[in-house]
């Protein structure tokens, strides 16, 4: 099964179909992804420079409506004694580097969209239904994610350290390598992973997850899916989109928890007081202490929560379509994974829709 979209009168997918138009054009889809990465990096660079232009070092970051500078500050950039910001130049450099990088990504996206081959060939060729190739692509992504986790470890140990709100200072961090303590957070109390209360465990957790991701990535690159895996999962463009959105939704909700309650990873010095959840028709997260306007923590927590919510809706939508469910007819109409819904199931689904 492949992703399908409505077609225009000319027989080609309409512009609003987005990347679904490129589902069978791997070269053009690569261009779209590279251009998308360029837009993300461009946004990061522009907003960082915008926040630098408005930075008032005499006021807390969380009172100035910033969402990027607090993240740079917790990495130890531009800080003096007591966690005070004494130099905005590192923030400017980060913004400028992102801005320059976005230009290269943008050119790459334009090249693959206009000049590159429509369909990749050779070792880069792939088909959505080819589980062997898909697991190699998955492995490559896992290796990159693992490298990202290890970059934080390198920053903590070798590249100047991190800001520690417990001592209100920037210092290097030696990771805790005790697996019982690190993985014990998976079975911790009400705040789960967000209950971490020291940087040694934070860095140790990134060390372990980085190694696990890289080893898992290498395993996926060098192996092929077992028969039971191919039977369990759907191998199609729509299914991969559903899997990705589900993972993004989970990470967004975990980030919401961390931002809301953890004052170690998200120091109150930069993000404002921790939050509680309230309901007024819909849930939203509010500060536990009076703040002049909305704090950076409130902006980030609410943004992550609602992004996670909509990612979840997208996951469910695409997962049902990948499983052969036809929303126009309100029933499973395609045979995916060797099974199609029985007539009684289709009747029940139709009744629920009605």
Give the structure's gist in a few sentences.
InterPro entries: PS_antenna-like (IPR000932), PS_II_antenna-like_sf (IPR036001). Helix content is 53%, strand content 6%. The protein has helices at residues 26-53, 69-74, 89-114, 131-157, 179-183, 199-222, 227-232, 237-261, 268-271, 296-322, 343-353, and strands spanning 162-164, 169-171, 275-280, 282-287, 325-326, 331-332.
Give a written overview of the molecule:
With 354 residues, this protein is mostly helical. The protein folds into 3 domains: 19-127, no CATH class; 129-226, no CATH class; 236-353. It is 53% helix and 6% strand. It is built from 11 helices and 6 strands. It has helices at residues 26-53, 69-74, 89-114, 131-157, 179-183, 199-222, 227-232, 237-261, 268-271, 296-322, 343-353; strands at residues 162-164, 169-171, 275-280, 282-287, 325-326, 331-332. Strand 5 and strand 6 form a beta hairpin. Helix 1 packs antiparallel against helix 3 (89-114) and helix 8 packs antiparallel against helix 10 (296-322). Residues 338-349 have low confidence and may be disordered.
Index terms:
354 residues; mainly alpha; 3 domains; two-stranded antiparallel sheet; 11 helices; 53% helix
Proportion of residues in β-strands: 5-15%
Which shape, going by the Cα principal axes? globular
- Cα distance spanning the termini: 27 Å
**How many separate domains?**
3
Number of E-type strands: 6
Which strand order does the major sheet show?
1-2
What are the segments in which pLDDT stays under 50 over at least 5 consecutive residues? 338-349
Count of helical stretches: 11
- Global structural class: mainly alpha
DSSP helix fraction: 40-55%
Q: Spell the H/E element sequence.
A: HHHHEEHHHHHEEHEEH
**Rg, alpha carbons:** 23 Å
Average residue pLDDT: 86
Can you summarize the main beta sheet? 2 strands, antiparallel
């Amino acid at each position: 099964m492949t992703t399908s979209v409505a077609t225009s009168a000319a027989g080609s997918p309409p512009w609003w179909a987005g990347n679904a138009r490129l589902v069978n054009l791997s070269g053009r889809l690569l261009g779209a992804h590279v251009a998308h990465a360029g837009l993300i990096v461009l946004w990061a660079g522009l907003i960082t420079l915008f926040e630098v232009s408005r930075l008032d070092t005499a006021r807390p970051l969380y009172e100035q409506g910033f969402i990027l500078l607090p993240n740079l500050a917790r990495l130890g950039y531009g800080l003096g004694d007591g966690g005070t910001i004494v130099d905005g130049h590192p923030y400017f450099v980060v913004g400028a580097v992102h801005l320059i990088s976005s230009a290269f990504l943008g050119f790459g996206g334009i090249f693959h969209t206009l000049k590159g081959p429509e369909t990749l060939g050779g070792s880069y060729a792939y088909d959505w239904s080819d589980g062997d190739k898909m697991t190699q692509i998955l492995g490559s992504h896992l290796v990159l994610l693992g490298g990202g986790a290890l970059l934080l470890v390198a920053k903590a140990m070798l590249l100047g350290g991190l800001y520690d709100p417990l001592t209100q200072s920037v210092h290097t961090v030696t990771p805790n390598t005790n697996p019982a303590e690190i993985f014990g957070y998976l079975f911790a109390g009400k705040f789960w992973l967000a209950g971490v209360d020291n940087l040694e465990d934070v860095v140790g957790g990134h060390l372990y997850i980085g190694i696990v991701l890289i080893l898992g990535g290498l395993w996926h690159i060098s192996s092929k899916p077992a028969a039971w895996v191919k039977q369990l999962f759907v191998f199609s463009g729509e299914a991969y989109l559903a899997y990705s959105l589900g993972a993004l939704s989970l990470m967004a909700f975990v980030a919401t928890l961390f931002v809301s309650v953890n004052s170690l990873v998200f120091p109150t010095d930069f993000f404002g007081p921790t939050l509680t959840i309230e309901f007024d028709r819909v849930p939203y997260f509010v500060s536990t202490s009076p703040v002049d306007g909305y704090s950076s923590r409130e902006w980030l927590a609410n943004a992550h929560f609602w992004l996670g919510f909509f990612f979840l809706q997208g996951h469910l939508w695409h997962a049902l379509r990948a499983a052969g469910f036809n929303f126009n007819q309100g029933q499973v109409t395609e045979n995916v994974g060797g099974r199609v819904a029985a007539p009684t199931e289709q009747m029940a689904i139709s009744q629920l829709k009605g």
